[in-house]
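Hi Y.,

Following your request, here is the sequence exactly as I used it, all 135 residues.
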Amino acid sequence: MAVVTLSTTLKNTMLTAVRDALDSGSGAGVIKFYTGTKPANTSIAITTQTLLGTLTLSDPCGSVASGMLTFATITNDASADASGTATWVRFESSDGAPHIDMDVSTTGGSGAVQMNTTSIVATGPISISAAALSL
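Below is the corresponding structure, written out as tokens. Let me know if you'd prefer a different format.
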């Protein structure tokens, strides 16, 4: 596999486009936590996966600098929709358009989104303390 190195300027341009996509729509974007297998891409409909809960991004969702999109405050879900093991998340704009899917793992694992526990309990909280996306 070839290694590609991007300039910081290009990284910032690409991440600004990601930020702007998440901020499109009339309100704040969201992060939805799911069970099951992550679809191959964001254009594939969610079928057998269970929605565990939804966190709300700030609007605007964050800032871009030095090749990194750093998310602003993310509002926790105080009452999860269902119980299950979070295996992936989908970032959507407020109009429901899917933009990013990421694997989830416990802290120190291989997931792009890491949590203290991936075991979600219905009516319990779902939270993340910080989030960033880099290229």
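Residues 27-134 form one domain.

Thanks again,
Q.
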